[in-house]
Amino acid sequence: MMWLLYIAAVLAAIALLVFITFAVLVKPNAKRDVSRFEGKEYAHRGLWSNALENKRSENSPAAFKAAAEKGIGVELDIQLTADKQVVVFHDANLKRVCGADIKVAELTYEELKGYPLPNGESIPLFSQVLDILGGVPIICEVKPGKTVSDTECCALAADMIESYKGDICIESFSPFAVKWFRENRPNIIRGQLSSSFSSKEEGLAGVQAFAMRHLLVNVLSRPDFIAYNYRRDSFGFKLCRALYSPFCVAWTARGGEERTAAAKRFDTVIFEEEPQKGNVL
Question: What fold does the segment set 41-272 form as a domain?
Answer without folding.
Answer: TIM Barrel (3.20.20)
